[in-house]
Amino acid sequence: MSQSPFQPVDAALVPRFAGIASFMRLPVVASPAGLDIALFGIPWDGGTTNRAGARHGPREIRSQSSLMRRVHHVTGTEPFSIAKVADIGDLAVNPIDLRDALRLIEQGVARVVEAGAIPLAAGGDHLVTLPVMRAVARSRPVGMIHFDAHSDTNDRYFGDNPYTHGTPFRRAIEEGLLDPKRTVQIGIRGSIYEPGEHDWARGQGVRVVYMEEFVRRGAEDVMAEARAIAGDGPTYVSFDIDCLDPSMAPGTGTPEVGGFTTREAQQMLRLLDGVPIVGADVVEVAPPFDVGGMTALAGATMMFELLTVIARQIAARDR
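Above: the chain sequence. Below: its structure as tokens.
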């Protein structure tokens, strides 16, 4: 297989702190045409209910992603060689009009999907996943493997507002975008608003794996179940950075103690190998609350893990 023309800047020639910041130092292109995987930012946090700041996530993830190198050290995969990958910049957003922002994000992702590329997004708060799914799942519902401290299947906030970062997957199920029987949520924990907060999700068929169950069973066993639930159909992967313990990812809007280590998260993402991923995101990195860039670095690293798995999928398809 010939090497992709979209290659990262060589750190042996241009130091990591120099040049224009892009995801993993890849070329920045104006169009997703010709790409297998399109990396982009969604700098919007208009769905945040408490600590805002995730609108700044894409910029800081780009900066920390300069630390990603060419080869995955476990699998030996060179994702930039086996798939055509580039940074297409940030999607248009509207920071003062929530519904218009959702419309703009959906339009931007639709251009990626129509070009035949798989979207890999950096948010933004978790509400951005809803318009991404509206574009990815236009022709059929998708399953989902979801890493998070929160189920994000609440109904209304602040009166009758249906759109916050705590509601995207309830809306996605209601809109027929997300198949709840092919959906698993891993790492759910923390205090909740009421005893039956997760009853609606479970009643739809969503598999909720609480953190305590994950600790008992371990990553390999839980991910084997997750893969079985997602099955062979098109699957979306959503990684909320607050699934990580705040000791390793303090820069997020709704931290919850008792989370995954970064090593456990990497292990789980690597176990996605072979899952038919049609889109993915890393969300809720909020740099104003970060310490030394460690949360943005975690976000960039999880994007690299997802990119590697998706690139391997593309290479296998092309073979």
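The chain has a mean pLDDT of 96.
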